[in-house]
Design goal:
The complex is a heterodimer.
Chain A: E1 2-6, H1 14-24, E2 29-33, H2 36-41, E3 44-47, H3 53-62, H4 66-76, E4 81-84, H5 86-89, E5 94-95, E6 101-102, E7 109-113, E8 125-133, E9 148-153, E10 155-159, E11 165-171, E12 173-181, E13 184-187, H6 195-206
Parallel strand pairs in A: 1-2, 1-3, 3-4, 4-13, 5-7
Antiparallel strand pairs in A: 5-6, 7-10, 8-9, 8-11, 11-12, 12-13
Helix pairs in contact in A: 1-6
Chain B: E1 5-13, E2 16-21, E3 24-30, H1 32-41, E4 47-51, H2 61-70, E5 77-80, H3 86-95, E6 99-102, H4 104-108, H5 111-120, E7 125-133, E8 138-142, E9 147-152, H6 153-163, E10 167-172, H7 184-193, E11 198-201, H8 207-215, E12 221-224, H9 226-229, H10 235-244
Parallel strand pairs in B: 1-4, 1-12, 4-5, 5-6, 6-7, 7-10, 10-11, 11-12
Antiparallel strand pairs in B: 1-2, 2-3, 7-8, 8-9
Classes of the chains: A alpha/beta, B alpha/beta.
């Protein structure tokens, strides 16, 4: 099996690579590339993303044909994709970080700044927070409710259809931290930095 | 609910872990990769490496240390010390650091902070502030605490937030190595004027100091070295103690 981590200059992806390689060991081939043919032929794709919504979308658009290739992979071929952090946020139609930017539009909704309640809550939301699992998700197999995951973000994905939400976390309000829509999976937290439980989620995705 | 973090800090010199008492008198406390792994297995919420290698020819050793550590530790790794520019940051992130902490370079050229937070995202840019009280106010020190910049710490903290820092790591030089507790006055003042998380550092001697750093100093995270390195307390004991005092921690 081939799992491809999309390398599109979306910031630091070393930890994503290290964690997937740790979980995959020799059994699964982990590719790190922006090569369109390799993405097309892989079984699963990981879409990481750090920095701003705009910078990630811009970086994605810079690579000719990448957007179409990902659309084809996810929407037409219905193969599994995992978006992490801004990788998940880009599923939305639109994001408002820096400026209004169009997302991939796979899951209707928007990406808004977390309401810090007039400074009561520090932003970014950095650190370990518990996830509230509200829907059975394949990537949460053997993950206990209220497990701790590592978060770093100031923006949140607000999907129109609440049925796609698989987990939330509590920070100033109930924030969407995981979604599942058919073959599309996403985590706002960083499984690659969430120790054993994070690695378990990666394991679950690889073994879908 | 977001948990307060406990971050063991490993001072690394020429690829080995050491810890300074008031920045001198260094003792060897082992291999950084192994230590980081022990800490992450023991429940550390993040690991921090501070590279205090002085000579330029040995500066590259840290990249190797970071690379090896990031393949074994799956909690966030922050690396600081000797970072001069965006290229240094790029190299550390590529080796597997999740965040970098910038000290002297941020004072000398705040563009390093704004440029790097734009390029890599503010989530990975920690500005480290070494603060010393002159009787009237706290001043920012650079070069591992050797040079006084004369800059007011409170103004500087605010400015670094505006420049795109994602977190502030504040070390009280008056307290560092003394084991008498964090400078609570300093921590709470900074925390009240910025909207980004503050990591308190310098002076921890017992577990009540960690409690004070969070409850009185309003720190989001507490950083400590000696109390963990020499086995006085384990990270787990620290967390259980914090938990018993009603502080939310990841156990």
């Amino acid at each position: 099996m081939n799992v491809t981590i999309v390398d599109y200059n979306s910031g630091n992806i070393s930890s994503v690579i290290n964690s997937f390689k740790e979980v995959a060991q020799e059994k699964v081939n982990i590719e790190v590339t922006s090569d369109l043919n390799k993405i097309k032929s892989s079984d699963k794709v990981v879409l990481p993303g750090q920095g701003s919504f705009k910078s990630c979308v811009d970086a994605l658009n810079t690579i000719n044909g990448l957007r179409n290739t990902l659309n084809e992979f996810v929407i037409i071929n219905k193969k599994p994709l995992l978006g992490i952090c801004v990788g998940l946020q880009m599923f939305a139609d639109i994001g408002y970080e820096e400026t209004q930017t169009k997302g991939l539009g796979w899951i209707p909704g928007k990406v808004l700044k977390i309401d810090n309640k007039k400074g009561k809550y520090k932003l970014p939301h950095i650190g370990w927070n518990q996830i509230e699992i509200i829907k059975d998700s394949k990537i949460f197999k053997d993950i206990e409710n209220k497990s701790h995951m590592y978060f770093v973000h100031s923006y949140e994905f607000v999907p129109n259809d609440k049925n796609v939400i698989s987990a939330t976390t509590d920070y100033s309000s109930s924030i969407v931290c995981s979604v599942e829509k058919e073959n599309i999976f996403g985590t706002q937290f960083h499984p690659e930095k969430s120790d054993k439980f994070g690695l378990k989620i990666i394991h679950n995705f690889i073994n879908l | 609910m977001l948990k307060n973090r406990i971050i063991p800090c490993l001072d690394v010199k020429n690829g080995r872990v050491v810890k300074g008492i008031n920045f001198v008198d260094l003792k060897d406390a082992g291999d950084p990769v192994e230590q980081a792994k022990i800490y992450s297995d023991g429940g550390a919420d993040e690991i921090c490496f501070l590279d205090i290698t002085a000579s330029n020819e040995n500066r590259n050793i840290i990249y190797d240390v970071v690379e090896k550590t990031s393949k074994k530790c799956f909690v966030p790794l922050t690396v600081g010390g000797g970072i001069r520019n965006v290229e240094d940051i790029n190299k550390l992130l590529n080796c597997g650091a999740d965040k970098v902490s910038i000290n002297t370079a941020a004072v000398e050229n705040s563009k390093v902070v704004s440029d790097s937070s734009k390029k890599f995202g503010s989530q990975c840019i920690v500005v480290a502030i070494d603060a010393k009280n002159n009787g009237n106010k706290w001043e920012v020190f650079t070069h591992g605490g050797r040079n006084n910049s004369g800059i007011d710490v409170l103004e500087y903290a605010k400015q670094m937030e505006e420049n795109g820092a994602g977190e502030l790591l504040v070390t009280s030089m008056d307290r560092d190595g003394t084991q008498v507790g964090y400078d609570i006055d300093l921590m709470s003042k900074i925390s009240s004027i910025v909207n980004i998380p503050l990591i308190a550092s310098g002076g921890v001697g017992n577990l009540d100091h960690l409690v004070d750093g969070i409850q009185l100093g309003k720190a989001s995270a507490v950083l400590a070295a000696s109390i963990f390195h020499y086995g006085k307390y384990s990270v787990r004991e620290a967390k259980e103690y914090l938990d018993s005092k009603g502080i939310p921690v990841r156990i």
